[in-house]
Amino acid sequence: MRPGLGGQTPAIALSSSIKLEESQAAFAYGFQQFLLKPIDLDDLVDAIIALLKRSNAEESISPLSSLGR
To answer: pTM of the predicted model, to two decimals?
Structure first.
């Protein structure tokens, strides 16, 4: 979800469309990654790991990250 709408939830868009507009729309709606179908399992796992690392890094450097704990 876009930060302006309540948060930053790590998300990967999956699509069978190769149109540039599709990937641009996914990023505009708040997705952090865009993968084409059919999905290669290794690519999906790599994308999930990258999102988790990025999410954890952003959380650890945020000055407000400790407020909810």
So the answer is: 0.67
